[in-house]
Amino acid sequence: MRFALVGMFMAGCVEAGQAPPESKHPGAIQFEMYKTALGQTIVCEERTSQAQCYGAEAPNLDLLDCSDERYRCVYDYADVMAVPRDGFLTPGQRYSVFGYLLIVEKCLGESGVCDTVAISSRCESEAACRCDGSTAHRQKLMFYYSRSRGVIAFFPILLDPARDLGSQRGGLGLDGDALVHVMRLGTYVLVANEGVLKSPLHLPKAERRRNCP
Q1: C-alpha 164: how far from its chain's center?
Q2: Burial 107-127 (b: 16+ CB within 10 A, else e)
Q3: Could you tell me the pTM of the whole model?
Q4: 26, 109, 159, 179: which could join 174 in a potential S-S bond, CB 3.0 to 4.6 Å?
């Protein structure tokens, strides 16, 4: 998600164990939901009627609710994570939510039981991504979903890392080997009891821009 890209490559790493940012809403219950090995966090604030989850290093980037009658869904202006409401998932399954194509890449549970699955997500078309004002056409997202805990981990996969992070002007000058390790360090891992798509947080509703495919 955009959190992962912003968090990983911003100047200066956050020290692990650093205190959460000052609350956006005094009096709200604040807790960390996800954390990377570098110490970047996604913080949630729970209030009576609504909650907010955002990157501690990028507090203006919120997680939004893009759910509909068939799917539970969260969106962050660049990526979508979604699963069917009935929780039924099988390897190779494909489904479209909020303009994104999601594919169940692998079942990680016992044979014949998909309690935990790896799911990839990417914008269905470059036109739709650009219309939405995001850079999602440059990446896809891999996330791991547990039926009992929700999303337990996620990380971005750049479709053209040489262009975005390589030796070109404006890139980070990382070779392919180093890039693999940096991307792994940017994996967000669940540190709360439940993650998104399971936790009963009432996030703000997402809306697509007018005339988007």
Answers
A1: 19
A2: beeeeeebebbbbebbbbeee
A3: 0.80
A4: 179
- How many residues belong to the chain? 213
Token representation of residue 31: 């807790």
Blockwise average pLDDT, block size 10, the chain, 213 residues? 51 44 66 90 85 80 91 91 91 93 88 83 79 63 94 83 49 56 79 93 81 62
Say what the pLDDT of residue 137 is: 55
User: For residue 13, what pLDDT is reported?
Assistant: 42
In one letter, which amino acid is 168?
Q
The label of the residue with tokens 């009963």 reads: 200
**Pair 56, 91: CB distance under 8 Å:** no
Q: Pick from 100, 57, 89, 86: which is nearest to 206 by CA?
A: 100
Q: Tokens 């509909």 correspond to what residue? A: 68
Name residue 146's amino acid.
Answer: S
Q: Going by C-beta distance under 8 Å and a sequence separation of 6 or more, which residues neighbour residue 162? A: 168, 171
